[in-house]
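To whoever is on call:

I kicked off a structure prediction for a single chain this morning and the downstream step that reads the tokens threw a length-mismatch warning. I double-checked the sequence; it's 193 residues and nothing unusual in it as far as I can see. Pasting both halves so you can look.
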Amino acid sequence: MHLSDEQLLEIDDSGIQHLKTCTDCANRANNLNKIRTSLSQIETLEFSTKNWDNIYKEANNRKHQEESKHTNTNLKKWKFISLGLAASLIASIYWPQPNFVRPSPKDLNNQITQLIKQNNQLQIQLTNLSVKRRNHSVNYQLLTQEITSIDNKIQQAYLYNLTEQQKLDLWIKRKLIVKQMLSADKNIHQLSI
């Protein structure tokens, strides 16, 4: 049995006895010794710390350049922002202020109640239109689909507890469409042939 690589690297007494009798293992051991001696003859290279110092200095220089560019850019942005802010403050002082009064929820509820009543009255007028006229008008059919869509949105507004203002806007939109349908009916002229 031959010696393993580990046994050849660290030869003990039994290994020396084996090398005397086994030429294969003796050749392998000689090759390992030659490799060791050639490795020991290689000069060790020393790395200069000057190169690393130069690299470190260059990296710091680039970092400072980037920071100064970034600082200059930010400074310019802040100048424009502060000028804009100053201009808006001056404008807000000298321009007349509109009176923005938000309606109270009670006022919005009253407006919604009025709009619902108005929509109901308009809906009654709409249903009183002649069936013949309604079915032949393409515009009327399109507006009917739009009313259905808005009715669905109104239902969702109540289901999902949207704000009173959003509900009010939907009721106003519905009222305008119903009025448009009524005015369109007045403009329809029947053709007789």
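Update from on-call: the warning came from a stale cache, not from the record. Cleared it. Sanity check on the structure: Residues 189-193 have pLDDT under 50 and may be disordered.
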